[in-house]
Write a structure and sequence with these properties.
Elements (H helix, E strand, L loop, with lengths): L29 E3 L2 E6 L5 E3 H14 L3 E4 L5 E6 L4 H10 L14 E3 L12 H12 L13 E4 L12 E5 L5 E5 L4 E5 L2 H15 L6 H4 L4 H7 L4 E2 L11 E3 L2 E3 L2 E3 L2 E5 L4 E3 H12 L4 E4 L4 E5 L6 H6 L13 E3 L13 H15 L12 E4 L12 E6 L4 E6 L6 E9 L1 H12 L3
Parallel strand pairs: 6-7, 7-8, 19-20, 20-21
Antiparallel strand pairs: 1-2, 2-5, 3-17, 4-5, 4-16, 8-9, 9-10, 10-11, 12-15, 13-14, 15-18, 17-18, 21-22, 22-23
The structure holds iron/sulfur cluster (SF4).
The site of iron/sulfur cluster has 12 residues, from loops.
Length: about 425
């Protein structure tokens, strides 16, 4: 399988943890520095207009007014009052975003966001079937809140996200099922049912592990338990969506209507941009898709919506320094942070934009990630420019690659004023 530059960094393999994960949910709120945080699972990233508007209103009336897209295509609310949990749950139930109190944190399903829009097969039926199967399984409620299902239409985008169980669509309607980090996958006739069976089998053998990679990294134990005979994985293109217009296409007799992908700056936006997205979706198919790369897809929309998206502050062009730029939460949301990394990073990226520094070179730059502390939450896989807060400024270094550590020469210390030029130069270091 081809690597994807923004795949979630493969985590080290750990033995079973023997304790519950502390992953936040819609009912289990996380106490952050800026108030309570709720993470709402959105299987496949699929949202209706009514669901998005309900989330926006909840963010305004119960939280800090913004919504965040996560690296699994879920949606977070921050800055919630400590007593907001009950009210939030009621609102989510009313629009179908909390169909089960017991299973809410295990509905972690990512799906190829452009599936069915540019000529491939749609994945909506798989998402809904797998979600329904999970909700109906008493065993599945034992899964960790970190357990991830990836449903890939064959383009290899979400298949590169280091999921616990990956289904890859086959042209004949069947699927390949990959178990953990196996370099092989088994042909299965009914993908969602096979994925549920594998998840239930994992619960039986996990010994306290949260992820398949911790208990059975190459999937051999699960394959034996399920009676599967995996074959070598095919090469997949590994194409993830870029922002902008998605051309429609055709898959046999099925026409694909295309769409538009809008980028969220660091995955976060206030109510107004989200309302713009909802209005544009309502004028198209009524559906939105939140991607694992902090984007929102408007199926069926065309180039005519780009001005409205840009006016709302959403990214619509890929050739800017914001492409491939990520940052951890930082201050004020995280107590460990030594700086407001998102504010500082935005200033640096906009400064490069405004000065149009070497526009050709920044069209395909190295990824860059800002972190408020050494944990570097959410940093990309592979080589990237590491911008780490020090308390006095930032330290820049090239990291990633085979060793996973710092590489490519020594780190440099920069002030906020020096950061824009230094980051732009480092991103051109290949
Ligand atoms: S990298 Fe450090 S500062 Fe940033 S969110 Fe993670 S723990 Fe907080």
């Amino acid at each position: 399988m081809s690597p994807t530059p923004d795949a979630i960094e493969p985590a080290p393999v750990r033995a079973g943890r023997g304790r519950d994960d502390a992953c936040p949910g819609a009912l289990r709120l996380h106490a952050a520095d800026d108030g309570a945080l709720a993470r709402v699972r959105v299987p496949g990233g699929l949202l209706s207009v009514a669901q998005l508007l309900a989330l926006v209103l909840a963010a305004e009336e119960l939280g800090d007014g913004a919504l965040e897209a996560t690296s699994r295509g879920n949606v977070q609310l921050r800055g919630l009052r400590a007593d907001a949990g009950g009210e939030l749950a009621q609102r989510l139930r009313a629009v179908g975003l909390l169909p089960s109190d017991t299973h809410e944190r295990v509905r972690n399903i990512v799906a190829s966001p452009l599936a069915g829009l540019d000529g491939g097969a749609g994945l909506g039926p798989w998402v809904r079937e797998l979600d329904a199967l999970l909700l109906g399984s008493e065993t599945a409620r034992e899964l960790s809140g970190r357990f991830l299902f990836a449903l890939d239409d064959g383009r290899g985008d979400v298949a590169a996200l280091d999921a616990d169980l990956t289904l890859i669509a086959r042209p004949d309607g069947g699927a390949l099922l990959r178990l953990g980090r196996a370099d092989a996958a088994a042909v299965v006739a009914d993908g969602p049912r096979a994925a549920l069976a594998a998840a239930e089998a994992f619960v039986a053998l996990r010994s306290g592990a949260w992820r398949v990679r911790e208990a059975d990294p190459d999937g051999t134990l699960l394959a034996a338990r399920l009676g599967l005979a995996p074959l070598p994985l095919p090469a997949l293109p590994g194409r993830r969506p870029g922002v902008g217009v998605v051309a429609g296409g055709a898959d046999g007799a099925v026409a694909a209507g295309g769409g538009v992908v809008a980028g969220l700056r660091f995955g976060r936006a206030d109510a107004a941009p989200w309302r713009t997205l909802a209005a544009l979706a309502a004028a198209a198919t009524g559906e939105l898709r939140v991607t694992p790369w902090r984007q929102v897809v408007l199926p069926g929309a065309g180039a005519e919506v780009l001005p409205a998206l840009a006016a709302a502050g959403l990214r619509t062009g890929s050739a800017t320094p914001w492409e491939g730029a990520t940052a951890c939460t930082g201050s004020p949301g995280c107590a460990k942070s030594l700086a407001d990394v998102r504010g500082d990073a935005a200033a640096a990226l906009d400064a490069v934009d405004a000065d149009a520094v070497d526009a050709d070179a920044v069209a395909a730059p190295l990824p860059v990630h800002w972190s408020g502390c050494e944990r570097r939450c959410g940093h990309p896989a592979g080589p990237f420019v590491d911008v780490l807060a020090t308390g006095d400024g930032y330290r820049l270094a090239l990291r990633g690659g085979a060793s996973g550590g710092a590489s490519g020469g020594g780190a440099i210390e920069v002030t906020n004023q020096q950061m824009a030029a230094a980051v732009a130069a480092a991103r051109r270091t290949t």
